[in-house]
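Human: My hope is that you can spare some time for a protein that puzzles me. I am handing you a single protein, as its sequence and its fold in token form. Could you go through the record with me and say what the backbone is doing? Take your time, and here it is.
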Amino acid sequence: MDQRRLLLFLVFSFALVMLWDGWIKHNQPAPTVQQAAAGAAAPTDGSVPTPSANLGVGQAAVPGEQQATAAAAAVARTVVETDLLRAQVSAQGGAIVRLELKQHRASAKSEDSFVLLDDGSRHQYAAQAGLIGDGLPNHRTMFELPASELVLKDGEDRVELRLRAPEQNGVQVTKVMTFHRGSYLIDVAYEIVNESGQPISPHAYFQLTRDGNPAEQVEAFGVHTFTGPAFYTDLGKFQKVDFDDIASGKAKLPAATADGWVAMVQHYFVSAWLPEQGVQREYFARSIGGGLYSAGLIVPVASIEPGATATIGSRLYSGPQEQDKLESIAPGLDLVVDYGWLTVIAAPLFWVLSWFHSLTGNWGWAIILVTVAIKLVFFPLSAASYKSMAKMRVLGPRLQRMKELYGNDKAKMQQEMMNLYRTEKINPLGGCLPILVQIPVFIALYWVLLGSVEMRHAPWLGWITDLSSKDPYFILPIIMGASMLVQMKLNPTPPDPIQAKVMMAMPIIFTFMFMWFPSGLVLYWVVNNLLSIAQQWQVTRMIESGKAAAKSA
């Protein structure tokens, strides 16, 4: 039994080492601007995508490749600001080249807004769109910008940016971008007026262009926090595509369909083009050079007769992965939240956490209440385990005598120990069960803390200002180590002195590793230990007092 318990502790220790390694990598400095944008002039490079014939409206003319006339920073821009967003829109293609999320800080120590779409401060990342057809404006066309920036005013629900493209061949195109109060959704549409004297059948494309560098490095148990394109269709469901597969031409994309969306996923945040359901679309992903990649979709525009007007557009979501909102925005969009291989546990765990958060308004107290709830759910199992451990503690002197009698005959000693367990109705594996139960919950909570944007920079109380980061003063890890030491004292001492020394070293080892874990995870473990100590102490006291009463009788 002691060997098995030691083995379980070693397995758990290995899991902690892997988590610790992943957390250290997570906190490594981000790539510098030069590294992130090495060789990338601007996210406007790359040819206009070509629709295939299976879109059913004929082949569109595709403009030839052009050289960028200026760096992205030199192109004129306008600013659109709402209560949640501050967007910089470039005259070149009307692309959103910089998007600040005003409700999210760049880091726990910074008051600057988090920059998602980026023009080179850390990454190259833009939301682009355009039309495919002879002379039609694309993401390289220079649009006419308004004279001043647009700001959502009090009492307004939306603000509209209208960008006019140069007229070509009698076709006038206006790009209309509508920003909404209290929303990260942006409506992007093209108004096409055909005065060319002949019908036209254009296509529209919507793409996200980004460098291939990860936003934040997170690795644990061989699973990476994903950065890259993702696609969703009713038939193919959710699928990620690695940048390396795009570069090598091995990327597998969904077939043309009348549903679904394309996204660029990173840790905590996502941008996604969400066309209207029922409109045929074709997906693409390509490497466009300079370390940049584009992923997007193409939709057809019905034939526009001379003198007629048509509108084609798509919604763009660019913001945090708020799980209570993503699913209502588009089918399957909530799947961008990455919980690794323990999603089956992590997803319901987050749901319970969210429910407790709705009651307390604080994620730290929600973690404590979840810990209590988990303890209650597994109370019968824990009680049985602690009874076995308490009985083992009472039997300690008898086991020591057996060791003295049969120390040189291990087979005989094992037989006598099993007879003793059978007589006293002790489960020799009982003390291992709580550890087995805690391992998947522990790892799942680790992923919830790392994968849920709701936990990002979430305070608890006092010195704990970010539950997704380590305790800055290591107070919780020290409390955790002390509580673990108390637990060890309540457990029966292993007969083998080497095993006893290893078990007593565990609190020190765990304390060191927990110093670098998210403080929310350490909080869970501290509360779990304190509840376990109270339960184990009570059970042990009852067993020992019962034995003492039996002897006196």
